């Protein structure tokens, strides 16, 4: 299972809960990248830029796709054409869709915002435009879309389980 969605959609939380519920390991692509780079994504962004980051993200995702893990992707991975191509080949891509206002609220809390380079570089209207520009990509590659605004993480996991097992 591969979870996609904009930053703040809950991909990491849901992957962790799903892994526990299903007894399967999970991988958070962003965490894996930080482990491999031995620095935060924010630091890497500042030093090398987004293009270099997206290439590393692609390589880590390719490796993760060869495993049976539940995968939590980064919100922007979908901007890379090769990532979209890889995900279109899959039958287990789940889009966690939240409204922009709720996601914005989640990602702009001080402790969380410091971990998200784009939040610190863009205005709210620029982030809204980024959200809108990515929506079509998420929808293009996902087999399942779950509207998460009114659901708790446990309810999202239950809905995924229901949809996947039917």
Automatic annotation (TrEMBL):
Coiled coil: none annotated. The keyword Metal-binding applies. PROSITE patterns: SHIKIMATE_KINASE. Belongs to the shikimate kinase family. Mg(2+) binds at residue 12. This is Shikimate kinase. One of its GO terms (biological process) is chorismate biosynthetic process. It catalyses: shikimate + ATP = 3-phosphoshikimate + ADP + H(+). Monomer. Its EC number is 2.7.1.71. Substrate binds at residues 30, 54, 75, 134. It comes from Fundicoccus ignavus. It is found in: Cytoplasm. Keywords: Amino-acid biosynthesis, Aromatic amino acid biosynthesis, ATP-binding, Cytoplasm, Kinase, Magnesium, Metal-binding, Nucleotide-binding, Transferase. Catalyzes the specific phosphorylation of the 3-hydroxyl group of shikimic acid using ATP as a cosubstrate. One of its GO terms (cellular component) is cytosol. Its cofactor is Mg(2+). It is an enzyme of class 2 (transferase). Binds 1 Mg(2+) ion per subunit. HAMAP family: Shikimate_kinase.
